[in-house]
Amino acid sequence: MAMIIDKETLEHVASLARLEITAEEEGPLLGDLERILGYVAQLSSVDTSAIVGKRPAMTELRPDEPCEGLTREEGLGGAPAMYDGFVVVQNVMGAEDE
Amino acid sequence: MSSELPRTLEHYRHAVRAHELSAEEYLDETRQLIERGDPQVKAFLHLRLDTARSDAQASNPSSPLAGAPIAVKDNIMMAGERCTCGSRILEHYVAPYSATAVQLLLAAGAVVPGKTNLDEFAMGSSTENSAFFPTHNPADPTRVPGGSSGGSTAAVAAGFALGAIGSDTGGSVRQPAAFCGVVGFKPTYGLVSRYGLVAFGSSLDCIGPIARSVRDAAIMMNVMAAHDPKDATSVKRPHVDFEAALQPTLAGKRVGIIRELQGLDVQPEIAAAMEMTRKAAVKSGASIVDVSVPHILSALPVYYIIAPAECSANLGRFDGVRYGLHIDGRDMTETYSRTRNAGFGTEVKRRILIGAFVLSAGYYDAYYRKASSVRQLIADELDAALQSADVLLTPTTPTTAFRIGAVTNPLEMYKADVFTIPANLAGAPAVSFPAGKDAAGLPIGLQLMGPRWSDAELLSSANVLFTALGGES
Question: What ipTM does this complex have?
């Protein structure tokens, strides 16, 4: 039977999800994912022709009114690195040139 | 628990109001039970008993919860307390604000003895996926308490709290309630605010009460059910008094038995409990009706597409920049992946990968879109079944609590949720209540499911069956 997920697809999906898969994790993960995806693939035999096109009701949104909330310090207090009230990140431009 | 101490929130409240007991005396007794019992049960990730005692001392005896200890699952925020979600990635994270449900409980006079253990980010059915330690079932410490709210249900079962709150995405309040012999209620989606609950599957997640009796769950719902402008999915509804709505009989009620679930492999004692409860329902004035939900067995595969898809999006926020763990890489991308790889456990990674797969180009239609359509189909079929029945009776779980370490195949673990998932897919309320024990003395739980917004009527029906089977009214 054709595999649903192979090594390359797993690596592609892992990069989309920003997860590194170690060499030891790869084999067991491939097996688990293949079994789980194989199991859920049974839905392809369910006739949903009467459903397709139906859209869920939109969430009712309240007016956007300013109110008391978290202070900047409280809101950002969980960040691993802060500078002058800002969250610190690495250089996001030109990562290739060392 | 010593015999003169109240077993339920209702009796506790009565004793406190009659000045037979004070909140701090009760908390001192609770503290002793925790200190004696929790090293074995391991229900709590963090305790705050000194603060809880001062809160109990300051509590108002005539407030709705009168200083009663209520435990909080550690994926629900409480200002100033850690909120780890059972994950390394949030091991040192401190909540900057309290969830609306927690605020409401505190305002009603509850005190919080501690934050309870869970499967990492609420993904699991045994609490073995906690990054810190597994919780043990108070009925038999060699067995799991169920999950993912296993810490909360174990705490209530062991007498460490009079009630608790958990989150239920696919059965995470009801399944561990069944395994631990307590009541667990998943309200209609939109009835209890999810503000301050760390998101897992946003279209499925609900906060619900865990209690020693159905009446206690109703008392907690009176406090927690409220419209919240901070949760866009919270719905404005007329006020309901859940406790006052409890009726003494099932007169005129139709209890539906779902035909398509009859062939499922269920532990014989659980099948016997179903039979006994069916008879109790008839004796209480109900009629039994056979109903059909043709695609109900597709609920499990639907869930294991929708929930991972939503989880992979929700957990994208844990990037090593805004919260929690940070592991340096050469560039941003490597920092993200190193942090996430070190911070997430195996089950969380598995679900993120499944989610990213079913949402990715080329697979989206076949998996995610298809699952969304089948979800709608099942919800429509449940609506139709609930036209000919007022409530649907099922087991909560196919088996009683299994041994710690006994289920290692993730797909086998997922199957523990077969009866609980349909209510999440449909946004419908469902409650698990204790219905006897199996031959090994392990608790059995049965589930009642009802139409959306029938929460008060559903709890009333569950209360009749629960008390008919020997539970405290």
Answer: 0.91
